[in-house]
Design brief:
Distance between the termini: 70 Å
Low-confidence stretches: 95-119, 187-204
CATH superfamily of the largest domain: RNA polymerase sigma factor, region 2, helix turn helix motif
Structural class: mainly alpha
CATH class of the largest domain: Mainly Alpha
Number of helices: 9
Number of strands: 0
Order of helices and strands: HHHHHHHHH
Mean pLDDT: 78
CATH topology of the largest domain: Rna Polymerase Sigma Factor, Chain: A
Shape: elongated
CATH architecture of the largest domain: Orthogonal Bundle
Largest sheet: none
């Protein structure tokens, strides 16, 4: 096989080769989706280190079960389903959430402007803090729809249920997220306009 030949192959072609025992083909799939899987895990488990572990486990499970994948759906949705199941199992086994993830570990887009990046970091910090308050399934739906660009039909393949249920979960997630962000904004305004009260409260 010529160098770079794998780069031009479709997921279906890579999967077929991987099912035939060609490890480099599976490694190409890992290379293609590792960032997406890691970011998805970050949103759901809200812990950067655990997300790395979830991503590794997801790819390990995909490698073990690749021969059973019949390609009746996209490899991407199959892989997302594996990753989300790993995350759900982790959350079920964890008695409480860990510390909030550092937003620096969750960057999706780098910006060349330091000033713009500082503003973006602050916005991301507020957004991720609000996201962590959502139920795991709503975080998953929101991530798959907004960041991965999946349709409701594709989301239903990943999470189970119907496309209609996926739409309802997405709308509810957005509604709740807006409420959390609005509540945070109102709290900041209240603190800024009544500093003496805030000081008294903090000293109690």
């Amino acid at each position: 096989m010529k160098a770079g030949e794998l780069d031009s192959m479709t997921d279906s072609q890579l999967v077929t080769r991987a099912q035939n025992g060609e490890v480099p083909a599976f490694e190409e799939l890992v290379k293609k989706y590792q960032r997406d899987i890691y970011n998805l895990a970050c949103r759901i488990v809200a812990d950067a280190e655990e997300a790395r572990d979830m991503a590794q486990q997801a790819f390990l499970q995909a490698f073990i079960h690749i021969k059973s994948f019949r390609q009746q759906s996209q490899f991407k949705t199959w892989l997302f389903r594996i990753a989300i199941n790993q995350c759900y199992n982790f959350l079920k086994g964890r008695k409480k959430f860990g510390e909030p993830t550092e937003t620096e570990n969750l960057h999706l887009v780098e910006d060349d402007s330091p000033e713009t990046e500082m503003v973006a970091q602050d916005e991301r910090r507020r957004l991720y803090a609000a996201l962590e308050r959502l139920p795991a399934k709503q975080r998953a739906v929101l991530t798959l729809k907004v960041e991965q660009g999946l349709s409701y039909d594709e989301i239903s393949e990943v999470l189970g249920g119907t496309a209609g249920a996926a739409r309802v979960n997405y709308c509810q997630a957005l509604k709740t997220l807006r409420k959390y962000l609005k509540s945070e904004d109102e709290h900041e305004v209240a603190v800024q306009t009544t500093p003496t009260v805030a000081t008294r409260v903090s000293r109690r």
